[in-house]
TrEMBL record:
Keywords, alphabetical: Repeat, Transferase, Ubl conjugation pathway
Annotated metabolic or biological route of this protein: Protein modification; protein ubiquitination
Highest taxon, organism lineage: Eukaryota
Organism: Salix koriyanagi
Record-annotated U-box domain positions: 29-103
Listed EC numbers: 2.3.2.27
Catalysis performed (reactions): S-ubiquitinyl-[E2 ubiquitin-conjugating enzyme]-L-cysteine + [acceptor protein]-L-lysine = [E2 ubiquitin-conjugating enzyme]-L-cysteine + N(6)-ubiquitinyl-[acceptor protein]-L-lysine
Protein name as it appears in the record: U-box domain-containing protein
Length: 449
């Protein structure tokens, strides 16, 4: 099989008029042996397997990672997964690309040799030894080398992850954490930039990074670091809290952690940092009831409710889902619901998010509305005042129609039960207000969704 390369060329039809693009197409044939048998694309980094067949490294890596143990062409079981660079073929491809540069080909750069497990193991030993001796500059030099490996390719990142670098770097971070807060955080900042793609860490790595010293240093970066360091600290903290409840319990005791996370939402530096901050708050507010009673009022006092509602107004799908998750946890607490009731936009925003964002966003919006409506008697015994006003506003926003659509489209069992409760409550309010006939909607509630 021969693959073709097409290139549009320009020509002048009229010198006196503006240039126009000619529709003629020129084709140049790429030699078959220059193309990867898997992707059928021109190879950039050809490697040969034990079966003697050559593939592009990226394609064969993906083939093996997907669990395949055979050669794609011969179907023979691979005796070894070793990949030998085919330098002569790569040189031929590079020369061919250079000769055909007039057709738009760019000379393929010589690929870097991927890092090996042995190299990672050796550099980890050197980092460990330099950490024990307190050699900060040496550690920084080695950490930068690991960071550069990761920049070169995803394959290198996986190799570094799989050979214990995360544990060694976590230990190094803990050892220099106190010095970073007292003087400067160059080394610990470099380590954070690598750790963001190292998770999940091993048990020892988690223990090191989850220590009080390390957590204090993370929060210090959240408060005092530059933009990049604050983002990395938020990402590492979020990943750490997702691993174990004990890290959540330890982190909430660190002074300034709440203020720093809320600041990242109030004064956003990038969407990635905002999402990381929201997820960290999500983990902090989804723990035990005793911790919730302490953390949720603290976040509420910091103005988190109004910030989340602002995010929901024009946030993208991912941010909306995370913000709704946090808001749902806030509504588990009486103080949180009280603050939510006070916001004039809450009902409008929640009704708008149903069906229009994602299934998860719809279910979270329903859950929040259910918590608000179910507890409306906390504020008024008969539901006529402020909290009851929330229900009335939902009726005016067309909540019944939106909820019925979601019920018909389909959702989880738990959400379906909440939907039915919400619809019955809304219908009761319509009857109570005396301006609607409930018979039409009751027939929908009786349908076996």
């Amino acid at each position: 099989m021969i693959v073709s390369w097409r290139l549009r060329r320009k020509s002048k039809k009229n010198k006196k008029q503006s240039q126009e693009i000619n529709s003629d197409m020129e084709m140049i044939m790429i030699p078959r042996h220059f193309c990867c048998p898997i992707s059928l694309d021109l190879m950039k980094d050809p490697v040969t397997l034990s079966t003697g067949i050559t593939y592009d490294r990226e394609s064969i890596d993906k083939w093996i990672e997907d669990g395949n143990l055979t050669c794609p062409v011969t179907n023979q079981v691979l005796a070894s997964f070793d990949q030998i660079p085919n330098h002569s073929l790569r040189k031929m491809i590079q020369d061919w690309g250079f000769e055909n540069r007039s057709y738009g080909f760019e000379r393929i750069p010589t690929p870097r040799v991927p890092v090996t497990p042995y190299e990672v193991s050796e550099i980890c030993k050197r980092v460990k030894a330099a950490t024990q001796r307190g050699e900060k500059r040496k550690c920084q030099e080695l950490v930068r080398k690991i960071k550069n490996w990761g920049k070169e390719s995803e394959r290198n990142k996986r190799c570094v992850e799989e050979n214990g670098a995360g544990c060694v770097l976590s230990a190094c971070f803990e050892s220099f954490a106190s010095a970073a807060m007292e003087k400067d955080g160059d080394l610990t900042g470099e380590i954070l930039s690598v750790l963001v793609w190292m998770f999940p860490l091993g048990e020892e790595g988690q223990s090191r990074l989850g220590s009080i010293k390390s957590l204090n240093c993370l929060v210090w970066f959240l408060k005092s670091g530059d933009l990049s360091a604050r983002q990395n600290a938020a990402l590492v903290l979020k990943n750490l809290l997702a691993l174990d409840q004990r890290h959540v319990n330890a982190s909430v005791e660190i002074e300034g952690v709440v203020e720093s996370l809320v600041r990242l939402i109030k004064e956003p530096i990038c969407p990635t940092a905002t999402k990381a901050s929201l997820m960290a708050i999500f983990y902090m507010t989804s723990s035990s009831s005793d911790l919730n009673e302490k953390m949720i009022p603290t976040f509420v006092e910091m103005g988190l409710v109004s910030l989340i509602i602002e995010i929901l107004v024009d946030g993208d799908k991912s941010i909306c889902e995370k913000a709704l998750g946090v808001l749902s946890h806030i509504c588990d607490c009486k103080e949180g619901r009280e603050k939510v009731y006070e916001n004039a936009l809450i009902v409008t925003v929640l009704i708008t998010k149903i069906v229009s964002v994602s299934n998860l966003a719809s279910e979270l919006s329903v859950s929040i509305l259910w918590k608000l409506f179910k507890n409306h008697k906390e504020r008024s015994g008969d539901g006529d005042d402020d909290a009851g006003g929330v229900v009335v506003e939902a009726l005016q926003m067309g909540a019944i129609q939106k909820l019925l659509v979601l019920l018909q489209v389909g959702c989880g069992h738990s959400t379906k039960e909440k939907l039915k409760e919400l619809l019955k409550l809304l219908n009761q309010f319509r009857v109570k207000l005396g301006c609607f006939d409930s018979s039409e909607d009751l027939k929908y509630l009786k349908k076996p969704y």
